[in-house]
Design brief:
CATH topology of the largest domain: Rossmann fold
Number of helices: 16
Largest sheet: 8 strands, mixed
Number of domains: 2
Distance between the termini: 19 Å
Helix content: 40-55%
Strand content: 15-25%
Number of strands: 16
CATH class of the largest domain: Alpha Beta
Radius of gyration: 21 Å
Length: 394
């Protein structure tokens, strides 16, 4: 039996059910593997009191420190998040908070490997803890955890050092693997580990009925992602504004909402373009199945789950050449890779609306992205690290 301690600061909780749902799905898949016994540590970074009891931190501070989360024993320790430091001390504070907890867990659960599911601050902390407890460490690179923290002056050196010291690295795409290698992390330790999609939930439906349920008649473009500058929702709004009669629905929440709402009002497209706010992951399948196109103009990605979920729903995508885009849009039926500009997105969306590919054919392009394959590859990776450690120490 492989005993896995999964560490992830990106994980859902009762106050944030959509936060890191793809990490949750990967973790639950591994936990269900017949050869795995798993415990989860999902730390929460909180500022010093009294800030930790105010605003959006208050619900986090109220979460239980240990709970059963969908059948998995889950610990939610707190670590000190010092505002205004650019994350410089995140990993050190996380290591400090986790050391006594992992010592206690290890007394009852002698874990064989630490599986860090997010690169920062989880990765550097996992490496330090792996050394302390004498177990191998794997770190997964997903996108912003490397593209941001791996370049930020306060944290870049920590990210690189963790990658060089880890026993194994997982990357969500070949493009992500290339980016990590460019940081000086040994390529032979990096394995591409694609995300999965639930092909039973994300599947083509009666599109007309799905649109009717949304109160929409006519072409529909959907965008899924947090309302942050990196996601490029402003580009998609401008693109759809130039396509008369086309509707746009944006699922996501974030600090860009006031600016995007002002843009919609300025363009006079409030009847066609709607900000839906946060949409529960369980409610995404009918929205994606109703869409004629899913468009997301991200400036950087690893390999976005929304891309694959749209394809599984039979909906082609329009995305820039970011991250693993070329690993997903492998045929014209899957959609278009467009320059990250409103005119280019207008043209690409217009092409797909004018000549929509068969939805079953679109779905076939997502067939290789399954959670079963994700779990099998992760088990193989982690068990391989444990075997290699045993061989080197034996």
């Amino acid at each position: 039996m492989l005993r896995v301690l999964t560490l992830s600061s990106l994980f859902p909780d009762a106050s944030r059910p959509n936060f890191g749902v793809f990490v949750e799905r990967q973790t639950l898949g591994l936990a269900a593997h017949p050869g795995v016994d798993l415990r989860l540590v999902a730390p929460l970074g909180l500022p010093p009191w009294p800030l930790s009891r105010r605003g959006h931190y208050a619900p986090l501070a109220a979460l239980p420190r240990c709970e059963d989360w969908k059948g998995v024993e889950t610990w939610r320790p707190r670590f000190l998040n010092l505002p205004g430091t650019g994350g410089r001390f995140h990993a050190a504070m996380l290591t400090r908070a986790l050391t006594p907890l992992l010592a206690r867990i290890r007394g009852e659960f002698p874990f064989d490997v630490i599986d860090a599911s997010f690169f920062f601050p989880d990765g550097p902390a996992a490496v330090a803890l792996g050394r302390r407890f004498g177990v191998p460490v794997s770190i997964k690179a997903r996108g912003a955890d490397v593209h941001h923290w791996g370049r930020a002056p306060a944290t870049a050196a920590q990210v690189i050092a963790a990658g060089q010291a880890a026993d194994g690295i997982l990357a969500v795409s070949q493009a992500m693997k290339t980016d990590i290698t460019a940081l000086g992390i040994p390529v032979e330790r990096i394995r591409v580990h694609h995300t999965g999609v639930d092909l039973t939930r994300f599947a083509p439906r009666d599109q007309r009925a799905a649109k009717t349920a949304l109160g929409i008649d006519g072409p529909l473009v959907v965008s899924v992602g947090a309302l942050i500058p990196r996601k490029g929702h402003d580009i998609v709004i401008d693109a759809v504004a130039a396509l008369p009669g086309v509707q746009l629905r944006i699922a996501g929440e974030g600090p860009e909402r006031p600016r995007l709402a002002a843009q919609i009002a300025r363009l006079g497209v409030g009847e066609r373009v709607k900000l839906l706010g946060s949409v529960a992951h369980a409610e995404l399948p009918p929205l994606l199945a109703a869409a004629d196109v899913m468009a997301l103009a991200s400036s950087s990605e690893g390999l976005a789950n929304a891309w694959v979920e749209a394809l599984a729903s039979g909906t082609p995508i329009v995305i820039p050449d970011a991250g693993g885009a070329a690993e997903v849009v492998t045929t014209p039926d899957a959609g278009r890779i467009a320059v990250r500009s409103a005119p280019a997105f207008t043209a690409a969306i217009g092409e797909l609306l004018a000549a929509p590919p068969p939805r079953d054919t679109v779905r076939e392009t997502a067939a290789g992205f399954t959670w079963e394959a994700n779990t099998a590859a992760l088990y193989d990776h982690l068990s391989g690290l444990v075997a290699a450690r045993a061989q080197s120490s034996g």
